Every structure is written in structure tokens, then in C-alpha cells.
């Protein structure tokens, strides 16, 4: 519909007018046809926009959800973060709290969901999304709890996720169409793992320890090695009793779920800076770009490319050029095992 512009429509309309009549701009005929041409051009624009809402590759929002609903794939809602909280009495010893107790951590509230060990509990954020992904801070009781002196967040157990965005949902739909998950194939195991909130990626290893054995390696929503709590949830969902078909896995399949191993990538380089840029600010900006890249790199390749890291460095504001780029002390790519995910270690830039 690219040719359905105001000018094109008006030109075609004027061509239908006899040549002996005045069709110049400002004439009666021109001024009578121009508003209609403008309305028709707007109609074609809206028609194209609405047509795009019916196809999965161009639809957005609610229309994307409706266009792929036939496949059974739905947008993943936001999920709450789960953290480990430690609670102490005046003497420093652990103190037990009632399940269901509520605590505030800055602007968010958390609810005690499960006792992990004396004085240690799994707490669920009452606000879904990544906003609850905290691993430190004071937990203040909303209601009085006898003998409780203080509480603190110890670590993040399961990251919260925001509602799935359009591009992620679209990619998941097309991946499912191109590699159907069925009958316990590899795609099916990966799909089962990703159905658990907090799982950000999965890699499947069939026959990893003999016949009928399957290993599923996962990372969390932050693309970091998964916590034992998240691994246990996925294991319980897919195959809680090995080989018995009590979970999603078919009878006879013995499934082992494990966390990916993290491989630290230390980056060092000499850079040439543009005028007005400070080295520490450039280093921080580069580290942020590396972290953003890392979140999309888990299970994406079997090595960390020096060329990719160099491109990220050269694309950092203030960097004119770089020299002697080193990854883990070497001048080449860094290999990753099939069950490894990259982690960003030290970032050392010099001028």
C-alpha cells in the first residue's frame, strides 16, 4: 500500500477529470477532491496497520496474543521473586517465625512461605516482577513477632520476572512452530523447564548417563546459574520420581535437572578515549554493556567471541579505539562447555 499516498490518490482522481476543465491547485475541482483524497490516504494507513495486527510477525500486545492463541502458547505473566531471609533473636541465634508472616524490604513486602532451616525461611515478594529481585537489606516485620530482634535478606533464590514482552513471546511462538515440542523430544523437555517461573533458559542432554537418561541444565531468569530451590522445582515438575512418569516426563525416562555452571570472563584492554571522557565512567559503561550482552549469551554459543567483546568495547561511548584486548588473560576466544554460562568478572581498562 506504499503507493496509496495523498498525492498518488489525488493524482489518480484528477486524471479522471476531463482535460478541458481547470484541475490546477486552487481550482474548484482540485479543492473538492483534495479532502476526499486525504481521507482515503488515512484510511489506507489504518487498513495497513490493522492488517498487521492479524499476523504473528507484526502483531503487538493483545492482538499478538490472539493471533497465536490457537497454538496454546500464551504470554507469561509476571512472577514474584523468592528470597532467603535469616531471622535472629537478641543473642544472635536463629529464631523461628510463623509461616505467612509479612516483612517489608524498602518499598516492597515479602511473605514467609517455607522454613529452610532454623531461622532461615523462603520468602515470596508480594509484588510480581523483577522489582523484587533483592539479595540484601533489612527485613522489618509488619506485625509483631515475639523474640525477633532482626531479619535480613540473605540471597535471591528464584528471580522474579516481568510479564513477557512482545518480542520474547513472538520468538517463543516461532521456535515452537519450527521445532515442535512433542512426545518427549528435546524441545519438549526444554519447554517443560521453561514453564517454571524463574527459569530463563534450558539445554537438554539426551542419553547423558545411559539409556533412558536425560539431563536438563537450566539458568535462572537473570541468565545466571540456578539456585538449588529453582532446580528442585523444575525437577519436581518434570520427573519427581525417576522413571515413574509422575511428572511431565514419560514413563521410563530418568531425568536429572541441574544448574548451569558459571564461567567467569575477565576482560582487560588498553583504550583510546575521546576528549572529555573519564576512564572510570567509560569502564562502568562498558561493564554495563557486557552485562547486557551476558543476559542473552547463555546457551547461545560454545565460546565467548573476542570479536564480539571488542565490538561491545568499540561501541561504548567515549572509546575511539582499543588495543591488546584480553579475555581471561588470553588473546583469543574463551571456550564454554555445553553446561556453562558466561559470567562477567573483572573489567580492567587502561589508557
Automatic annotation (TrEMBL):
Pfam families: Baseplate_J_C (PF26079), Baseplate_J_M (PF26078). Residues 265-349 form the Baseplate J-like C-terminal domain. InterPro entries: Baseplate_J-like_C, Baseplate_J_M, Phage_Baseplate_Assmbl_Protein. Residues 181-258 form the Baseplate J-like central domain. Belongs to the Mu gp47/PBSX XkdT family. This is Phage protein gp47/JayE. It comes from Paenibacillus forsythiae.
